[in-house]
Amino acid sequence: MSSLSKPMGKKVIWFLFFLLFLLHQDFWWWDDTFLVLDFLPIGLAYHAGFSIACAVLGWAAIKYAWPHELEEFAEEVEGEKKAT
Amino acid sequence: MTTLIVIVCYLCLLLGLGFFSSRLSRGTSKDYFVASHSIGPFLLLMSVFGTTMTAFALVGSTGKSFERGIGTYGLMASISGLVHAGIFFLIGIRLWAFGKKYGYITQIQFFRARFESDGLGYLLFPILVLLVVPYLLIGIIGAGKTIEPVTAGAFTEIFTNPTAPQWLGGVPPWLTGLVVSLVVLSYVFLGGSRGAAYANTFQTIVFMVMGVVAFVYIINGLGGLDQAGKVPARITDKGVVVQDYHFDKKSRELVKNEKPKPIGRVIDSQNSNLTDLHPHLSRTPIKVEFKKKNPKTGEISLFERELGIPFITFVSYLFIPLSVGMFPHLFQHWLTAKSAKAFRLTVIAHPLCIMVVWVPCVLVGTWASGVLPPGIPPPAVLSAMLNLLVGDPVLTGLLTAGVLAAIMSSLDSQFLCLGTIFTNDIVVHRAGKNKYTDKQIIMIARIFIVVIVALTYVLAMWAKNANVFDLAVWCFSGFSALFPVVFAALYWKRATKQGAVASILAALVTWVYFFHLSGYGGEMVIGPGIIPAAVCFGAAALAMIIVSLMTKPPSEETLKKFFPQVEKL
């Protein structure tokens, strides 16, 4: 299991979410047409990397901030239905 | 002709899949509408991704990149990776839990219960229909624009009045739209949400694989990756926009022009040094006057286009992906999930799937600026590149089938969701649950779906020249303006019925106002470049907060139902 407590985990995930949002506004490469590997414009390469970072954040959110209570909340229904 | 045969075979395969999934149906309305909450992680990912990616993703992104360059990716794709995943996590799982616990099939059922209001459902229903219809239109329009160029020459005796002379004999958009509508209608009619989930999964795999294959062939056609990087249109020291290369159809090679071919001239720019700049690889706005040849009369005319993206527009686009929180068809997909864990794969893989589809499309759009005439309709750019560079009719057919797959994987969910909300939120809600049998409920949904398909087809033929990307942005703007309603419903105990009504009305009024100003679907920004979605969202959020605080809070019973152990949930 994670070493972060869940409230702390949530805070870290929210911080990373807002950080990524800020990093999305890459004004520093706005008019740079440099080609990474001779074909990929740097502005596009950066945003492709950004997409990968979003996937990593999704993984971290699942690991450190997963809403187990919601699962239990929905599973109660199953239990109730089976009981009836 | 071979290309067309491949496409027809693909459509037949889809019909077969629809028939197969209908055999798996349990025959209940719950199975027809939400697949009895039985969909696992992979099917959920594929159906959610396939539903959110439509003609907009393949045809629209390539066309927009052809117009504005690489900024298209950050504008829509990368921010969607962040916001969509966040919404699946914060909104999707929570709505799924309430849907499963209280038996909701539609968004409106949830809102009626949460805001203790019947009338809210009647207010929301026509608005959701109004906003889903443009989304449907872009699918039908996109399909028509894609098929005509790639089937050019197949039926020169029959189809003698093409959209452009070079596409003589191609299958006309009206016929493509009709066939696509009927195919989607067939498998949705037969298989319901289970059929849509299977068909979506199959089609999402097809369009992702075919997208990658198309990309590889286009790169080969351009002479390799490093060569492709040099192809985009360039600005000379005199401010003339030129194409340095052309594709020689006889030798099937990219050839450098002896003299750069002028296609337009810069008329305004904030950038002082434009010499040798490839404007599609930058994002600084540059206004260019291009030449355009009328395909029928041969007359040359001039038109203006802004390349690049103003920074403020780029930032304000963050409001657009919020729309997924209010898509009724996505809500229905969320409810098909077997468990909350089924969302995990979607949260992680959705941004990656977006990347796999959008990066190649945006690159192809920028490369197209260097080899296609600037006046070509943006939705036709992808198929024109395939037609020009790939050549092989079987492969072109498969790649085109991939584009159709992306389009149909959204159409099916949208048709189904409209049938679902009409049946459950209007007919059954008014008549009472016991008036109709399960079979009658399914039949009512099917009849409504047929009516919506017919209506959509007629509207698509009327709006056949609309810009797919811009129309999609308008649709998303409307849904994102409704986002404060769902967010407040889930996370703000103080949100009231009156607040929700005020928020919906504020969203509607501002959206209709700006939509009218845009000329009903054109590109539009306000002031320094803010998109209308930001203003619509702000108005709706303010209305929700102010009116909720001024009115009586929801009952204790409702709060207990939707905020049980609020400190935990």
Q: Largest interface here, residues on each chain?
A: A-B, 39 and 53 residues
Number of strands of chain B: 5
* Widest sheet, order of strands of chain B: 1-2-3-4-5
What profile does the largest beta sheet of chain A have? 2 strands, antiparallel
Backbone shape of chain B: globular
Q: What's a quick, concise take on this entry?
A:
Chain A is mostly helical.
Please provide a written account of the structure.
The complex is a heterodimer of chains A (84) and B (569). Helix content of chain A is 70%, strand content 5%. Chain A is built from three helices and two strands, in the order αββαα. Chain A starts with 5 loop residues before the first helix and ends with a helix. The mean pLDDT of chain A is 85. Chain B is of the alpha+beta class. Chain B is built from 20 helices and five strands. Chain B has a five-stranded antiparallel sheet, with no helix packed on it. In chain B, a hairpin with a 4-residue loop joins strand 1 and strand 2. In chain B, helix 3 runs parallel beside helix 12, helix 4 runs parallel beside helix 12 and helix 7 runs antiparallel to helix 14. In chain B, 59% of the residues are buried. Classes of the chains: A mainly alpha (84), B alpha+beta (569). At the A-B interface, helix 1, strand 2, helix 2 and helix 3 of A face helix 5, helix 9, helix 10 and helix 12 of B.
Topology overview:
The complex is a heterodimer of chains A (84) and B (569).
Chain A: H1 6-24, E1 35-36, E2 40-41, H2 42-65, H3 68-83
Chain B: H1 2-24, H2 29-34, H3 41-52, H4 55-68, H5 71-102, H6 107-114, H7 119-150, H8 173-221, H9 225-228, E1 234-235, E2 240-248, E3 253-269, E4 286-293, E5 300-307, H10 311-316, H11 328-335, H12 342-368, H13 381-389, H14 393-431, H15 438-462, H16 468-481, H17 483-491, H18 497-517, H19 532-550, H20 556-562
Antiparallel strand pairs in B: 1-2, 2-3, 3-4, 4-5
